User: Fold these one by one.
Assistant:
Number 1:
Amino acid sequence: MTARLIYADSESSADLYYATRFFAPDPFLYIAEASGTSHLITSSLEVDRAKRTAKVDQVHDWEQIRQQHKKLFPEEPLNEATITAFFLTKLEIDTVAVPATFPVSLADGLRALAVTVNPLSGSFWPQREIKTPDEITAIEAALTITGRGMMAGIELIRSSTIGKDGLLYIGDKQLSSEIVRGEINATLVREGAQPNHTIVSGGKQGSDPHEEGSGPLPANQAIILDVFPRVEKTGYWGDMTRTVCRGKAPKKVKAAWDAVYEGQKIAFAKIKDGMSGKEIHDEITAYLTQQGFPTGADEQGRQGGFFHGTGHGLGLEIHEAPRISSKDQTLKTGHVVTVEPGLYYPDMGGVRLEDVVVVEKNGCRNLTKIPKFLELGE
């Protein structure tokens, strides 16, 4: 018989949490029989909690299975492979499908014990792509928390004063990326979410899309804030980006912000069931080029323009299928995706705006409620 098998910790394995709805920091075993019966095998430390909360048919104590194996086969070594193979034999399972991330050492051990192990390429649970109404509600809740963190950071920047040196100040103290990030992250934690490399990147630092930002924040230049926490209770992620300027934005920054804003509107108008993600991405790229913002490397080899995808799936992982990018993928009803065009140049810094939408039959619905604005006043 065949089955699906995962061995991982559900804090880091979205596939395992999706199957069990059980958070645990240490690896445990999940088996789904072809008949549909599911099993979770975990340590004595977690077994009672798993019995109360895990969405599986049967929960087993790893130590009890060890003792059963030891009693029947006292001379055989006891390790993850022998105990797993022993349990699979009890279920009359000789072939398992596993995720591509399955531990190599355990796979080799199972094969040595006559269990056929077949790693699956692509999604282990393809149905994860299509979000249920409950999942969409969980993502909306994550975005609400994300928005509160975002606004805490923006309001701190808004409350700053502009120094004669062109930097931002709170009282007599320079306002830095670290201070704003701390304010955002503290808000997220209070709301029950885990911050994850929150980006507060000012001025020329913003020309690198994933630069977290450091040091004093400049006035009259773009500041990118990208906030993407994971809600501790549900495991779902939020993701949101805004670009603001304390003071008066340079002409190029304002033009770039307007172009990115219009690029988002192109995506919102085109996203619907059956639409090509590549077509959307290509149209936005062409529009930005027409507005005077070409994409490509400069003489020093630095990338400039719009050189990342328009969006990605969001759910139990911060980046999951599908993509809206140069790789063609078809959007389907129930997909939840980000829409985040951006422009980046070494002499300007960066501009990015990001909302999250759910794909519907005849369009899309924006789940992000935080407004978009550039200048925070002079």
Number 2:
Amino acid sequence: MNEKKLMNQQIGNNGENVAASYLLQKGYTVIERNWRFKHCEIDIIASKENKLHIIEVKTRTNKKFGNPEESVGEKKMNTLKKGAEEYLFQHQQWQQIQFDVVAIKMNRETIEEIFLIEDVFF
């Protein structure tokens, strides 16, 4: 694996750890992290108040490629939808579902900004 890809993976993993802690502080229960089915990956699956939350985590360390949330496009949302459909098929107890994004801006190991964008799809 090349150095740049490894560094991006590390940034992503750090962001997902930060996001999971942030969600726990906000009263969510983290059910799954990095849940995979075929070509679909869901960063965090959580619950709060009897609702299943499918959460995409985006972390940026600079503004070169824009804000983190701007990188969640139609293709990514379609992949999340396919993954969520399979998860719901396997876990049929969930009646309500919501798609969210946790956007994180970091400077090295320091969190500059973190916020939750709720109900981004459907």
Number 3:
Amino acid sequence: MKKITVILLIAVLCMASVFAGGSSEKAVETKDYSTMSLSALKAEISKTTGGTLTVLTSPDYAPYEFYSVSKTGVPTLAGFDIALAKYIANYLDMPVEFIPMDFDGILMEVQTKKTAIGISGFSPTEERAEVVDFSKIYYAGDQAFICLASNASKFKSLEDTNNAKYTIAAQTGSIQVGLAQQYSPKADILQLTKATDIIAELIAGKIDGAYIETAVAESYKKNYPQIELALSVPFDAEGNVVLIAKGNGAMVEAVNRAIDAAIADGSMGKFVEEAGILASGEIIEGLLN
């Protein structure tokens, strides 16, 4: 009888432990960061960042991110993504550290390093949502198909791009790859690491066209008038977002508040305008040695 009593007591204690653990986990999961003060959010973020906002970016995508070269030849990170990242850091009263890298590596780095955010003209997609969280939309951009002006007559519609005799490029890891596969499946789709590679291959006549963001294409056209924005490409994504590691709710909330502030006070509009002006001057796109 005593043995039975002891066994029952152990079972009850185990069940109590399970339910207690479950309620504790539920409390963590339902933590409401939207009710936190900014100072409380900063404290939460500092636990994982060490007090510095680390920003991963691919500086080959003017006017989003690139190097603006001064009159004395000094390259400086510029673009409206860079300006927004600085605004977010200032909003959080944190120093900012930029880490330039290839575009297709940013997603994995943000996924594995909770200390960093990624900002590089990213659109929200279902595939990306599986591994990272998104901020709210900070800029709504359109998509374009570009070619040389001398070949523009060949591309009157997106159906014209769907031809096995054409080589069509898009940046590796970008949503433009999906657009190329959707609208030009018969073409030889070439994925290139940098947007600068796409432009170089296009001007050299090694590819027939490319899918690229409209604002980026317009920026390149200022420096390379032989490029033509031949077609507008339908795309149902809402715009561009900041990538944030899964589970970092405090960072998501803080970044969203900063984006709201940047849009409300007119800063975001200024960032886009100023980036466009800088992108028309001397610039470097790609990773510096």
Number 4:
Amino acid sequence: MPASTSLRELLNQHSGPAAHELIERYADGDVRCFACGHRCLVRPGRFGVCRVRFNDGGELRVPRGYVAGIAVDPIEKKPFFHAYPGSEALSFGMLGCDFHCGYCQNWITSQALRDERAQAPPSFIDAERIVSLALEHGCRVLTSTYNEPLITSEWAVEIFKLGKQSGLVGSYVSNGNATPQVLEFIRPYVDLYKVDLKAFRDRTYRELGGVLENTLNTIKLLKQMDFWVEIVTLIVPGLNDSDQELREIADFIAGVSPEIPWHVTAFHPDYRMTDPPRTTVETLLRAHELGRQAGLRFVYAGNLPALVGDRENTRCQNCGERVIRRRGFEVLENRLMSLTEHGPRAKCPACEAVVPGVWGNSKDARLSAGVGAPRRVSLRTL
């Protein structure tokens, strides 16, 4: 029996019914799935594009009860630069994805049911244990990441619902291929949402397995629904690095809100895309400048720590005062002042303008110097 078949059977055993909010049933046993923008019509005995949501005799079954990876990460790695700076996130991921990006840096988990080279055996765990691990490790945030979280939203909500009772914040690190139904489903339990805006050409998106319009609509809807949104564009030489395309991305984001942080990050060869060279510092600085020219107030250059000058830091959008100083994932200085003792808003210490973000209170805002590296949680303890 092929390894992929045995993994498939194992995962099928660790599944549960799909949320009724995310499906539409038909008389012949077919089920329409609304977990992601593909909106798959899944017939009995078949799987959706994601390869993990499947129709078992007219019931759509979805992943639950396992992780393929789990770690304590600085929240800046997600990256969220305007949410709980210096705090840590318990990050967990499952298997499968609704895209098939040739440069995926998490392909071991995301492509596990699509590529026989991807070997990421699951570790079985319940939601209560994940929440307790977060609390044991002093995390402020729970993050569904490493594979596409939208396709495992039922499991994420099960975890985040428990976490919320203990004061933990839910977050998604996603490709943004969402539907209104899935965003409504997760909204009570997810406050922070990072979207990968991979390009601004529909042809590129279709090669990766998606549709550009779906991601653009998701970004607009996230903002309307009052998620805290940050956007990442991994700049791949020859794929999306022209001035015109980067300017169009920046213009789009600014049109939704100039306060949305845009992270322009450096590519390194990975998975099936080994030909393009690494992204240069000069390219990141050029993208940063294009974002600023478009009117974006917060543009960050990432993946090349200490090589991009001031472009890892946060400055007040009103007076230009530096309020957070970073090096890579480390917060070296945080000068934000809480507006209220227990509120999430903060102000600039120089001009007292409110700096957009979800900052928490003073006990959440600590320096992370020296603990800026991810800490793997031992799966043997699960």
